[in-house]
Amino acid sequence: MLNSLSGRFLVLTTVFVMLAEVLIFVPSVARFREDYLLGHLERAQIASLALLADDMISPDLENELLKNAGVFNVVLRRDEMRQLVLSGPVPGAVEASFDLRDPPAITLIRDALVRLLDPEPRVIRVIGNPRLEAGLLIEVTMLTTDLRVAMFDYGLRILLLSAVISIITALLLFLSVRILLVRPIAGVVGHMQRYAEAPEDTRSIITPSASVTELRQAEEALQSLQTQLTQALKQKDRLAQLGAAVARVSHDLRNILTAAQLFTDRIEGSKDPTVARMAPKLVGSITRAVSLCESTLAFGRAEEPAPMLSRFNLARLTDEVLDAERLAIGDADISLSADIPGTMTVRADPEQIYRVLQNLVRNARQAIAGSGQPGEISIKGYTTDDGWIIEVADTGPGLPPKAREHLFQPFQGGVRKGGAGLGLAIVAELLRGHGGTITLKDSAATGTTFVLRLPMGDVA
């Protein structure tokens, strides 16, 4: 129970209330002591008035008056004269004097603590103002035994009352916390546990019902999180099923298209002018379809193979990529250039880096060709203290805002109409296998620039 929120709250409440009562206890006992002494002064004054009314009283009556007043003697000052009004035997010497004529609070508290901690009976002198202006000063001598006993009795009653108040207050707060906080929190935890058992079941999503503002906000945040997670899980399942279906279809379609490519090779040799004019377009369409199937199958594998790292000349690899793309440009007004030091060597998988550059250059070429305007594609490479940097830039129309939101996500980051959105996803995955990254440096109406970073790592 003590490990629970309500249990700890109960203990803390009891401790704090008791602490508050203790802070009240000390001045209360000091006030009780002052009232006790003032009461004895008042009774002593009444006894002295009886003597003043009749100068001749018997010793037995005088002792009875002193006993009822709880003092040994009474001194009354009237008209600047100090007069011993009542007197009896004193059991010892006076050890301390206390003036109750407007004493400071700290003095009263100190004297009360000293009296509680001192078990020995002491003879003390108490000085105060007479009641109803019946003189200038009244002074009595008394023993501290009864005073200390009375102070202990009063203190025990105060502590007992404080304990009862603390327990009642703590129990009320305990019940309040259980009802207002612990039960709603337990309800939220229960919703979370039931949701964890079946996150796809929308019935387990929490419905906000708390009346406390903070708990209501927590329930609303949990509801939003559960709703988004449930939708994401459903989408993930649908994408997995779709991916499996697409992989199967792409595999069979690739075989069919490969056979179609063989037939197109024969069609290209036809003398029919119509066939000769349509054949290149047919070849291009089939080639793009085969490429799409291969990309889909490559991405559909559980993971890309681990890179086979080796040192190679980046400038020569870049020239191979650009030479292959020049064949695909045809009559389009697109220029390709590279600015890479001839001696720049990197440690990576050359085949995978070739695919990375080929995807980026092909995307740029298709974007420029789709705009119908002339353009330029450039590749720049340089070395930093901890890695190799490759920048692929073009002067195309730039990326649309929708494409930037899901740029490196498969089936969502496609830019070209009819594209599958796999090229940049594959690029990002290949670079992650090298411990590298790809970032979009800039994309505007004047062009797009991607920055590739390959870490040097442990290079001999």
TrEMBL record:
Residues 248-458 form the Histidine kinase domain. SMART domains: HATPase_c, HisKA. One of its GO terms (molecular function) is kinase activity. Pfam families: HATPase_c, HisKA. Residues 215-242 form a coiled coil. Keywords: ATP-binding, Coiled coil, Kinase, Membrane, Nucleotide-binding, Phosphoprotein, Transferase, Transmembrane, Transmembrane helix, Two-component regulatory system. The chain crosses the membrane at residues 6-26, 158-181. It is an enzyme of class 2 (transferase). PROSITE patterns: HIS_KIN. Its EC number is 2.7.13.3. This is histidine kinase.
